[in-house]
Design a protein that fits this description.
single chain, alpha/beta, six-stranded parallel β-sheet, 9 helices, 8 strands, globular
Length: 221
C-alpha cells in the first residue's frame, strides 16, 4: 500500500481526480486529493487573499494533520509550482514525486512569468475548453461547468526554492503527447538517470482522459 497526495491543476479541484483516486483506492492505496483554496468546492473562498503560498500550505497541512509519511506526491500542470514548494517544507515526508504534464519552475519564477502574461484583477477566469479535448460534448460541458476561476495571486507570486525536489529519491515525469504543452519540460529529463519519463497519448487533462493508464503509472512511481 502506498500513500498518494495529489495536487490538482489550475481552475480545477479534487473532482478532476475522482476516476484515478477510485482506481488507486480499489488497489488498497491511501489517496488524498485536497481541493486547493478558492477552487472547486472551496470557490466560495476566492474573495480572500489567496496566493501560491496558500496552496502550498493546503498540501503541507494535509500531510501534517493526517500524519502522512512516505508520500507519493503527484502534481498536475500548475500543481507543479505547488508541489515544488511543498518539498521545500516537507521533504522528510516525501518518498517519490510525480510531475504530470506539469511545470517545474525555476527559483524565483511565477506561472505568469512562464505564460508571459500580465494578470490583473482578483481572479483569472477559466479558459474555454477546446472542442476536441474530450471524447463527448456532454463531458466537455460537464468539465466547463465545474471549472472555477483561479485566484490571481496563485499565478503571480514567484516561488522561491532551493531545488529540494531534486533530492527526492524517486522522480517521475509523465508527459501527455496529444498536445504541444510540456515537451520542453520533459525533454531534458529523458537523459537524466535520476528521472523516469513516461508518455501517455492524450490531451492535457490526463486524469479524466486516461485514468486506467495513469493509475498504473502512479503505482509504478
Amino acid at each position: 500500500m502506498s500513500t498518494f497526495v495529489i495536487v490538482h491543476g489550475a481552475w480545477a479541484g479534487s473532482w478532476g481526480w475522482d476516476p484515478v483516486a477510485e482506481r488507486l483506492r480499489a488497489s488498497g492505496h491511501r489517496v488524498h486529493v485536497p481541493t486547493l483554496s478558492g477552487l472547486g468546492e472551496r470557490s466560495h473562498l476566492a474573495h480572500l487573499p489567496i496566493d501560491l503560498i496558500t496552496h502550498i500550505d493546503d498540501i503541507v497541512n494535509e500531510m501534517v494533520w493526517h500524519a502522512l509519511d512516505d508520500v507519493v506526491l503527484v502534481a498536475h500542470s500548475y500543481g507543479g509550482f505547488v508541489a515544488t514548494g511543498v518539498v521545500e517544507r516537507a521533504a522528510d515526508r516525501i518518498a517519490s514525486i510525480v510531475y504530470l504534464d506539469a511545470f517545474i519552475p525555476e527559483d524565483g519564477q511565477s506561472f505568469a512569468d512562464i505564460i508571459g502574461e500580465k494578470l490583473t484583477g482578483p481572479v483569472v477566469p477559466a479558459p474555454e475548453i477546446g472542442g476536441n479535448e474530450y471524447p463527448t460534448e456532454a463531458e466537455r460541458d460537464r468539465i466547463a461547468a465545474l471549472a472555477t476561476a483561479q485566484p490571481t495571486g496563485t499565478f503571480t507570486e514567484r516561488l522561491r526554492h532551493s531545488g529540494a525536489y531534486r533530492q527526492v529519491a524517486r522522480k517521475t515525469y509523465i508527459l501527455a503527447t496529444g498536445w504541444e504543452g510540456f515537451q520542453q519540460v520533459a525533454s531534458p529529463l529523458r537523459d537524466d538517470p535520476a528521472w523516469t519519463v513516461h508518455e501517455l497519448p492524450c490531451g492535457h487533462d490526463v486524469p479524466l482522459l486516461m485514468p486506467d493508464e495513469l493509475a498504473a503509472l502512479l503505482e509504478q512511481a
